[in-house]
Amino acid sequence: MKDFRLTVSRQFSESLTALTRYHESTGSTWLNEELFTLLVRMEREYREGGYRKVRQYVFELWDVD
To answer: pTM score > 0.90 for this model?
Structure first.
């Protein structure tokens, strides 16, 4: 049985980058560059104590060898 590790928003922009690449490779366009930039900016501002109206999360599932 494989082991996995679940994290939440530890690598927010890196995870969104991987997700964007995946969807681009399948022809999907819902996560485009403009939305990616907005989500990353909102997360950065939230962590810096600024924008607090919306919070988004990325659930990251890691393959543990």
So the answer is: no
